[in-house]
Design a protein that fits this description.
There is one protein chain. By secondary structure, the chain is mostly beta strands. It has five helices and 32 strands. It has two domains: 120 residues, no CATH class; 375 residues, TolB, C-terminal domain (Neuraminidase, 6 Propeller), CATH 2.120.10.30. The two termini are 42 Å apart.
Length: 554
């Protein structure tokens, strides 16, 4: 399905070796004996009669928390003070807060040798037909939504542990009828305001096209969706493979869409490097809109080629071969991309939260860190963004042929795994984890003996996707070799699954268990509207909502 092309596979350079130095991470353990370099974000609201917002950053070597200043305390120098929260202020505030959060989360600390936290898998459901994705709706801790490649969206009830017999929605797709078919229903993303507007988006293949459409849930039954669709994007795809298929809303509220290079070997038309009138081999970034005329989206002005003749407005990044599964770290906002290789290397690409768009991940000029030698390419260019981790096409527990990108663990059931990125490989059935501190990968761990087979004795052997629930716990889609053989597994502590549900307060806009910079960014991004962030439900996001958010910060 997301396999490499049929070219002869040949192992070349070995994967990145992990750096010997241990650059550790912030852990939420009271028993931790580490020295943290904390960054405190002081967000002060005062004189709202005049509408002044001031932000200041302070660095200290103490146990820090994100804390708002008392409104009466004026003994600081504001970094910025504006009469109204302008669009520029919102942009600066988001950038500063995201940067501070990322720095705090990745603070350097001296540690002893890292200890591997063992896990296992529990099979939660089976009988699925080629499942390609599993996810949750915003704030919904009771259900998982599972895509079947043949066109159905299924619901698994986490409370009753049952797979609902009636699909949430079934659509017509092209392909998706066998395990090796790369076409069909591939991606699902829920609108951040799904609880209010009931809108969600599907990525699927049509006849010679890839399509992104919007749907809405039924007003009468939350387990059923309306079949009427609004097509947002549709683009030609010359071959049946390399369709990409992932979508996700970023912390900025925009919809990110990963597209493949269009298929065949060596990207024959160099589509991934072509940025004019070409959506293939890209990471697109759009803002869906309601009503009006086509197109039913806008391109953010911060997109790298917005308004220019040198590139398409929708493009955020390019140089991708088949970004099969990707994800945002729900805590930091960092973007992880699993890009399937051709003959030599599988790779994990990365974009830190708050970084500008326009990154070129190299394909078809590079595969991993290897120069392909194809025409029209310059290897070794400083304009190319290398992967953070590679896996050579080779046998063994570190080798792979068809990478499946995963998720950074942010659940509450296994706290020592906080910040660990889980991912795997569809062909080799290897499952891995690592940590990335913005410069170096550490704690690379082969999880095969823990993940496959599961504790129930069922083998996880067709890893089509990873997913997460509303609490940040991670799941694995096992596509199965035939119709009805697909399953969903949950990664749990080796001692067994733990029941935990971080409380979701009103100001926790993304319901991740913390009121932090992501929630602030959402509130500021929707300032003056009735969207996500209207904490007091008065119809407008304003100073009162911001004050309510700051009151429960952390």
């Amino acid at each position: 399905m997301h396999a490499a092309s049929s070219d002869v596979q040949r192992a070349q350079s070995p994967p990145f070796s992990d750096a010997s130095s241990r650059v550790a991470r912030v852990r939420a353990s009271a028993m931790s004996r580490r020295c943290y370099l904390r960054f405190i974000v002081f967000i002060t609201i005062f004189d709202w009669h005049c509408g002044v917002l001031a932000l200041s950053f302070e660095e200290e070597r103490t146990r820090g928390v994100l804390t708002p200043f008392d409104c009466r305390d004026r003994d600081f120098e504001p970094m910025l003070a504006l009469q109204r929260p302008s669009p520029m202020l919102k942009k600066i505030a988001y950038s500063l807060v995201a940067s501070a959060l990322a720095t705090a989360a990745l603070a350097i600390t001296a540690t002893a040798d890292a200890q591997v936290v063992n896990v296992r898998t529990d099979r939660i459901t089976t009988g699925l037909t080629f499942p390609t994705f599993v996810t949750h709706a915003p704030g919904d801790t009771t259900r998982l939504f599972i895509l079947q490649k043949t066109g159905a969206v299924r619901i698994f009830n986490l409370t009753t542990n049952t797979l609902l017999a009636t699909p949430f929605l079934t659509i017509a797709v092209t392909g998706g009828t066998s395990a090796n078919d790369e076409q069909g229903l591939l991606g699902l993303a829920f609108d951040p305001d799904y609880t209010v507007n009931g809108q969600f988006y599907l990525y699927y293949t049509g006849s010679g096209t890839n399509v992104v459409s919007r749907y809405t849930r039924s007003a009468a039954n939350p387990n059923i969706a309306n079949t009427a669709a609004t097509v947002l994007l549709s683009w030609s795809d010359p071959f049946t493979n390399h369709n990409g298929g992932w979508m996700g809303f970023g912390p900025d509220g925009n919809l990110y869409i990963g597209t493949g290079d269009g298929g065949s070997a060596n990207d024959p038309s160099n589509r991934a490097q072509t940025i004019v009138n070409m959506r293939l081999g890209k990471m697109l970034r759009i803002k869906p809109k309601i009503g009006g005329t086509t197109p039913f989206y806008t391109s953010p002005k911060s997109n790298p080629f917005y308004g220019a003749t040198t590139g398409d407005d929708e493009i955020w990044a390019y140089g991708l071969r088949n970004p099969w599964r990707n994800s945002f770290d729900r805590l930091t906002g960092d973007l992880y991309i699993g890009d399937v290789g051709q003959n030599a290397v599988e790779e994990v690409d990365f974009q830190p939260a708050g970084a500008a768009g326009g990154r070129n991940y190299g394909w078809r000029c590079t595969e991993g860190n290897n120069c392909t030698g194809l025409t029209g390419c310059t290897c070794g260019s400083a304009t190319l963004t290398p992967p953070i981790k590679t896996h050579a096409h080779a046998a063994g527990t570190s080798g792979g042929y068809c990478i499946t990108g995963g998720y950074v663990y942010r659940g509450c059931a296994i706290p020592n795994l906080q910040g660990t990125y889980f991912y795997g490989d569809y062909s080799s059935n290897n499952v891995w984890s690592l940590r990335y501190n913005g410069a170096t990968t550490t704690e690379f761990t082969v999880r095969n003996t823990q993940i496959t087979p599961s504790i129930d004795g069922f083998a996880v052997n067709e890893i089509s996707s990873f997913g997460e629930d509303a609490n940040g716990e991670i799941y694995i889609c096992d596509q199965g070799a035939s119709a009805g053989a697909g399953s969903i597994y949950k990664i749990v502590a080796v001692t067994g699954d733990a029941v935990c549900a971080p409380p979701c307060v009103a100001a926790d806009l993304n319901c991740d268990g913390a009121v932090n910079g992501s929630d602030l960014a959402t509130l500021l991004g929707n300032w003056g509207t009735a969207g996500s962030g209207d904490i007091d439900n008065n119809g407008t996001i304003d100073a009162a909502d911001l004050a309510a958010l700051l009151a429960v910060w952390g």
